[in-house]
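User: Quick sanity check before I run a bigger batch. Here is a single chain. Can you write out its predicted 3D structure?
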Amino acid sequence: MKQSALPVAIILLALVVVWYVMAVILNAPFQRDLDRRANQTPGVVEFIGKTLAQPKPTLPAPHQVAVNFFENTFLRSITSNRSLVYNAWVTLSSTLLGFAFGTALGIVIAVGIVHVATLDRSLMPWIIASQTIPILAVAPMIIVVLAAVGITGLIPKALISTYLSFFPVAVGMVKGLRSPELTHLDLMHTYNASPSQTFWKLRVPASVPFLFTSMKVAVAASLVGAIVGELPTGAVAGIGAKLLAGAYYSQTIDIWSALVAGSVVAALLVMLVGIVGRLVDRAMGGRPA
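Assistant: Done. Predicted structure follows.
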């Protein structure tokens, strides 16, 4: 455990050092301009300190982001619009709904592709092609079209999350449903098992590890879709709304803090899916690795 943690800690420390260096470099031109206007000539150490303490820096320092994240997470009421907990919950609600839709759609598509040869040849290429369209181009169209028919709020954002999350589930389930070896399929035929029995007793259990692996990717993609979906809607709450407000008012520290909040939410969701996957595997008689 210690051997695996040490390289990770070294890499994280190196990233923080690089972050500080880049913050000084990128914030230095504006700080020089401020010092020139104030007729000040600070020393090197004082100058570096000023570049790392600007209220609206080009690149905020790690400690500025950490302080902002702590204040807006633990020191504010969760009902406040500035609370990262409140904004994360708004985004999480559409994320989970879109993830549920995407997972169900991906499973249905995978079952159809595996059992219907026509769908395998005709549908799969279109599914792959759908993921080549940038989500930033798709999201505004979905929002506008649904708003025209009176559908607003949570559903449009959830559908954008569905668009991103169904693909990894569909691909993973197709691979999982096709993973049983030919000898196992022949054995089921020997037992005179029906297609439905073969599906439920052989293909589905074999696909479970593939399903939860793909769901880890899908839930992270669903979060990205929910955040992107908040941008063209003019949302007043959510991680995407925090990013948009920070961009409008040049609050770069708030932007980075919201990005950290999104990363934490994504990590927790992926971890939760992994835990559920291990519980399901254990319930099905799987041995712990």
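The chain has two domains: 2-59, 84-283.

User: Great, the batch can go ahead then.
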